[in-house]
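Input record (one chain):
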Amino acid sequence: MSEVLKTEYGNPSSTHSYGRSSKSLLETARKEIAGHLKVSASEIIFTSGGTEADNLILQSAVSDLGVKRIISSKIEHHAVLHTIEVLEDKHGIKVDYVDLKPTACIDYDSLEALLKASEEKTLVSLMHVNNEVGTMIDLNRVANLCKDHGALFHSDMVQSIGHFEVDLSEIPVDFAAAAAHKFHGPKGVGFAFIRKNSGLKPLIHGGQQERGMRAGTEPVYAVAGMSEALRIAYQNLEKEKAYIRSLKEYFIQQLKKHVPGVHFNGACEAMEESTYTLINVCLPLSAEKAMLLLFQLDLKGIACSKGSACQSGSEGGSHVLKEILSEEHFKRPSVRFSFSSFNKKEEIDYVVDVLREFVNS
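The corresponding structure, as predicted from the sequence alone:
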């Protein structure tokens, strides 16, 4: 990224040599990103991140594709939920929410019943990996259910792209969103996958950048960083996945051993049903001690959150946990811990020691 800032300072929309050089770098990055997902380069549209990509897809689906009904879940990221609320309010679209299991897994029979219930043009919006509790949907199963019933399928894949192999040439997903910072790329850049000939139209108007789908001069250095980060992520995927998974397994084992009464939210304890990159735990603490938990962890140099980072300032608690936890567990403090290849086993031991001391003090 530093090298690009120094040497590729031309505007990629300019026709002079400096602009053409930047444009070449931009399109090479687009082609490389598309290659990881087994799609065409023309189906990758650069955005400022996952939130913009979700908004582009959902808003255009209603305003330009004639979608009258959206099926989603109540544990989606707020980039999806709040956008759906706005569309419901402004455009009068019908919104249905699929039933959930206590593990935060969707009920596939409920989804199928909802798809059969109406012949109105429908978009299904379900995230691949939940950002708070890590539960995964069967992407292929959902995509094929949508296809069988003539519905469009959008998936927020911010938590999965870069962490799982995703072949969109085989899985009939119509639209997806990704964000670079989730796979160690720069913040403030991401992309939308938009299946060709979808009919989707731009959310941001102005110039003809991004094949007319997203006006505004592209941040070439950030796109280059995103492409390189994704390349590294997939190049090292199997090795890093095994290592990070071992950290998660060890953390679960140690928490059970040293923090009696710990509860694992959603399906985060089940390795085959959730991502290997995070766990979400409910701790046996009184209300008074719960108020000091994150403060104490921060003082000890431990970076975690009571929900997603987007939710950490929320007064009402996590909307995800509210949907899946019992009243008793919801009243207790829950914390999300995330893992990467940069973490070490010694750090797990340190966190467990701090939690054990705090819970027992």
